[in-house]
Inverse folding.
């Protein structure tokens, strides 16, 4: 049975690895160098945190661009690549960090040329790197608080693990965004994203409407979209993905998210539908505000003027919000 939702084919393209190698050779050394010096010379925990997030985000962008240009949809390959990138980033960071620590603490490698030479040696000697890491874990080189006592042992190990997890998480999230966009194997290209925002209450029978959409029935959906603005505290974003040139008779895909304004201007975001197949003509009607057909029932008068939910013609009050369905004429 064919699913009504987009499902990636898991395509693997060797070009992806070429782009990844190019981006990695540029980003990893620069990120590692910036990470080491920022963390070492600005020894504040919040600086360390944002530096780790920033490095992970940039690494994630590098993987994302490789995914986008390499046209790969295999999630396992992409996520494995992102994790390996995070590990390599931290390994290179250690290869830069160790000579810096030895120059500051022990007076070794006092000039940049000496530290650079030692870094090159460490890059090809992982056994020595892990030996020094173990030594640093035992003695410690930095502390927290006024006492400045060096952090060592289990606590330092936990901090290092958290550091890796932060970088890895950021490097995974960003390429995942690209992978959520539909891809056409037929046209060998990514779908184009288009948005439409509506200010409507989600109907009480939304699950029924969702089922109709899955079955290719669009009357109630089109009427809901065209009904008009009813609520300023919440809005829905309809994200349509249109196929690239060369994808003959390919469907559109639609994602629906809802944002609700809560207390203290806090916005709560909920995803209601993700990458649901939709008829191209219906998608264009919604995007271009050219919806022409309306169902015989229910009519606009059978939708509550306050909350937008449907009701029976003979109901005087809305079963959802309690408002009058037919307000008295002034």
């Amino acid at each position: 049975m064919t699913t009504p939702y987009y499902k990636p084919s898991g395509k693997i393209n060797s070009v992806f690895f070429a782009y990844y190698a190019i981006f990695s050779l540029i980003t990893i050394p620069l990120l590692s160098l910036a990470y080491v010096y920022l963390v070492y010379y600005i020894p504040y925990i919040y600086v360390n945190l944002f530096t780790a997030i920033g490095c992970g985000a940039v690494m994630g962008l590098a993987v994302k661009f490789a995914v986008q240009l390499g046209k790969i949809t295999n999630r396992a390959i992409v996520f494995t690549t992102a994790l390996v990138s995070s590990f390599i980033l931290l390994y290179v960071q250690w290869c830069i960090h160790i000579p810096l620590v030895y120059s500051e603490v022990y007076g070794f490698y006092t000039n940049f040329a000496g530290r650079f030479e030692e870094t090159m040696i460490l890059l090809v000697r992982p056994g020595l790197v892990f030996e020094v890491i173990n030594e640093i874990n035992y003695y410690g080189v930095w502390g927290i608080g006024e006492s400045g006592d060096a952090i060592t042992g289990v606590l330092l190990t936990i901090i290092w693990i958290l550091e890796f997890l932060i970088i890895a998480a950021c490097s995974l999230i960003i390429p995942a965004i690209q992978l959520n966009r539909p891809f056409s194997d037929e046209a060998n290209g990514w779908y184009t994203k288009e948005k439409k925002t509506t200010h409507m209450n989600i109907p009480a029978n939304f699950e029924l409407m969702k089922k109709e959409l899955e079955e290719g029935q669009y009357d109630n959906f089109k009427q809901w979209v065209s009904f008009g603005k009813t609520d300023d505290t919440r809005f829905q974003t309809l994200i349509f993905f249109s196929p690239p040139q060369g994808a003959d008779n390919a469907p559109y895909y639609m994602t629906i998210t809802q944002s609700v304004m809560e207390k203290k201007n806090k916005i709560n975001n909920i995803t209601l539908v993700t990458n649901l197949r939709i008829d191209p003509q219906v998608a264009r009607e919604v995007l271009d505000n050219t919806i022409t057909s309306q169902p015989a029932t229910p009519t606009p008068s059978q939708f509550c003027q306050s909350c937008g939910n449907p009701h029976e013609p003979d109901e005087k009050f809305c079963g959802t919000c309690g408002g009058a369905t037919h307000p008295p004429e002034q």
